[in-house]
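Ligand-bound model needed. 6-O-phosphono-beta-D-fructofuranose.
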Amino acid sequence: MGSPITATIRVVAARGTRVAVMAGVYTRGHGRSNRLATRTHGRSNRLATRTHGRSNRLATRTHGRSNRLATRTHGRRQRLRADGWFPGPARTLYSRLQLGGTGARRGVEIQKILIMTGGGDAPGLNAVIRAAVKRAITGYDWQVIGSIEAFNGVLDDPMRLIPLDLDSVRGLLMRGGTVLGTSNAGGPFEFPVRHPDGSIEAVDRSDELIRRLHRIGVDAVISIGGDGSQRISQALFEKGLPIVGVPKTIDNDLDSTEMTFGFQTAVATATDAIDKLHTTAESHDRVMILEVMGRDAGWIALCSGIAGGADTILIPEIPFEVDNVAMHIKRRRKEGNHFAIVVVAEGAFPRGGTALTVKERKPGQPNPILGGVGAWLGGELEARGFHQTRVCVLGHLQRGGIPSAMDRLLATRYGVAVVDLIAEGKFGYMVALKSDEIVAIPIKDAISRYRTVELDHNMTRTARGLGICFGD
Ligand code: F6P
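Prediction:
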């Protein structure tokens, strides 16, 4: 089988299990190389059948035969590229592509695509991978490889790549996390490099990344990630990399799409937690505070708060006053409700204050780690006479577990559509949900601002209509 990938590449069969493979694992799927590959394959198969059960010597000859054809196939591809598809150094490698444009990449047939997952994990990542692989192979006969831990797999020596075929994505639909692994530290533009003295420096390896992708014959990249990952996608696209995006984040804060996948599962998890906290709150006449994720946007707090029947919802978009929260709980008590449920987003803060952090940002890390607002609020409420206040931090439980049916659906729709984007040559675009249709939007629009909770959004008005307190 033909292979543009050198023998030094290691393939990771499953995360953590490295298997060294020979050159020849990856086959081109199209055009000239495909014809040769098919002949090679047919030839080898015939020989292999004949040799099966006989001597190893024949098997070796069979193998040698395939390799000779593969080399010729590979040589052909290299010549085509040298003819001008990917001329020059990294910056101009993919310069013949229609940047941001529509329509097919003139003269370039897609043969191999790479999938990577970046940023925090979210339920549905594996469902996107599965759908994209199925669409790419059954719809277009492309080869698909995955990069382990975002782009680290391409930047590491040896590279950590995984071939993604139909077998490898079987059973992924309902699996949480990502089989490709992910990272929300660094990225090619701020790659953390540790010096001998222990200090960490962020180094720009983006040109090297593009060169490496070219070297392994990647024709297009699918970046599945949230705001941080899509910023990287846009910057790589501006350097000429043919890249398309899929919007992921449990926070649902990516602009230009009505929904990111992972969000609905996180809301279901938080709602389930509120249901359970109700039991203790009612039984002990307590104030139960649930701190949920939501750095810049309070969608998880707002939606789970409404779905779970919270009394107070505190979000980053609406700075709160503790006294207002305390007054609201007292009023409830007077009305005969002796318990209260407060849902607070990790990024929420009191008027005039800022969000609390538990860890500062390190070089190569996009943000400090938020947390602690629930405990702080609990202390403030106790100081105002609510002695039976308890705090629960839901944390990464919101990102874990199996994706909900709705997230599986959305992830699957995105996975199929993003492969079609590549076929259409719509690089620099991201799939998005608009009025229940999957559409393509420029990645630069999606990252131009956060999609935060608007004060006149129907969800906000619904909460206020129920008498839910925002602390304002
Ligand atoms: O962006 C998604 C998110 O879940 C945020 O809500 C949260 O602040 C952050 O990731 C936590 O990231 P980490 O996994 O690094 O703790």
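DSSP finds 13 helices and 17 strands in the chain.
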